[in-house]
Each structure stands twice: as structure tokens, then as C-alpha cells.
């Protein structure tokens, strides 16, 4: 294949967001001395994912997501809190978490050795994503890191990828792949930008969206095989 530029989503693709989120939430809720930490986490996690999906669909703003999600969480349990304060405390705890999936660093190392140019392309909060990358074992493999909060554009908007195209020397959409787990942001984003996509789908989810991945893989080994074809 003639691909040269590999754009990697971070959370749920290379960074273990589930583990990071669990640790950060536990630290936050223990600090807040809630009665049942697990109950709060079980409500927050799907609620937060729904908010990020709403953001990708432009139903809410990033500011609304960040500043209200903890108000929503505590309100569900009958408590009124300062959402902005809790957002800042959560950002602090989450930014300390640099866990990656097993094999992620080896994957990037092999791809780099094979001559591919690697870039991170992530939606998220700048201080969180930078903090997590700094504490991970994968940061050094990326030429550049593009964070929606920092560049003021987000996946799946074509403008997000236009920023990348303008910043990366020699960038060519036809020689690029967007690799990620999210149909809504990663795959639809690639569709919008005219970039081929790889849907990283280790749990064998069903595609119930309009997004159309060029390829679907269930492991890092699948990506290596795909690129070697």
C-alpha cells in the first residue's frame, strides 16, 4: 500500500482511557467523600460518553460538556455542587494517567521503523491529553500531536483535518489513514475529509451509524498486516 501518514486517535485506541478514567474518578469521588463511589462511577461513565457523542454531533458545546457533567452527576444523587471546581479537580487527576494498551508502544515503534510518519489526532482537553502523553510510553513516536481543544477544531469536522494538512509538510490525504475506535468522530471524520480510515474494533461492535470505514481491524497485528499488503 502507498500510505505514508498515519493519524492515530488516542483514547480507546492507544491510551487506555477506561483504566485512566476509573482511577481518576475514584480519586475525585473519594476526595469528595461520596457515600457510594461505584454507584457514582456507574452513572457517570455512560453519561459522559453520551455527552462526548452529543459534542461530536454538535448538540452541545465543549464548554457545556466540561462545566456541567459533574453537576449532572451529583444532581442525580440529590446533591448540588460547583461543576467547574469538580471539572478542574478531575482534569488534574486524569492528567496524571498515562496508561496505554499492551502492545501500543511496540506497534508505533515498528511503524516508525517501517518509515511511516505518525501523528496523534485526538478530541479532548489540552492539559489532560498532554499530561497523559507525557506520562505514557508512546509520546516520542509522534511527529506532532493535534488536540481539538488546542487547535479549536474537532473531529469529525473536515476543518480538524485541514489543520493537520496545513501543518504537516508534504501531507497528502490520498496517502493518509485515520485510525481510531470511534465511528462518530474518527471514521466519520475521515469520511468528511476524504481520508481513508481504519476502524479499530477489538470488541466487534456493530456499525449503526452512517460512517463507513475503509478497513476494520480487531488488533494491532491486523493493522500491521493491512499495511504490509
Question: TL;DR of this structure?
Answer:
It is built from ten helices and six strands; from the N terminus they run βαααααβαβααβαββα.
Please name the defining characteristics of this protein.
single chain, 229 residues, alpha/beta, Rossmann fold, DNA polymerase, domain 1, 2 domains, six-stranded parallel beta sheet, 10 helices, 6 strands
Distance from N terminus to C terminus (CA atoms, Å) equals 6 Å
> SS-based structural class?
alpha/beta
As a percent range, the share of helical residues equals 40-55%
- Output the number of helix runs: 10
Taking the sheet with the most strands, its summary is: 6 strands, parallel
CATH superfamily of the largest domain: HAD superfamily/HAD-like
Order of strands, widest sheet: 3-2-1-4-5-6
CA radius of gyration is 18 Å
Written as H for each helix and E for each strand, in order along the chain, the element string is EHHHHHEHEHHEHEEH
Total DSSP E strands = 6
Question: Would you write up a description of this structure?
Answer:
The chain is an alpha/beta fold and 229 residues long. The protein has 2 domains: 5-16 and 99-228, Rossmann fold (3-Layer(aba) Sandwich), CATH 3.40.50; 17-95, Orthogonal Bundle (DNA polymerase, domain 1), CATH 1.10.150.240. The chain contains 10 helices and 6 strands, in the order E-H-H-H-H-H-E-H-E-H-H-E-H-E-E-H. The protein has helices spanning 17-31, 37-56, 62-76, 83-95, 104-113, 126-134, 148-151, 158-167, 183-193, 220-228, and strands at residues 5-8, 117-122, 144-147, 176-180, 196-200, 215-217. It has a 6-stranded parallel beta sheet, sandwiched between helices. The longest helix has 20 residues, at 37-56. It is globular, with a radius of gyration of 18 Å.
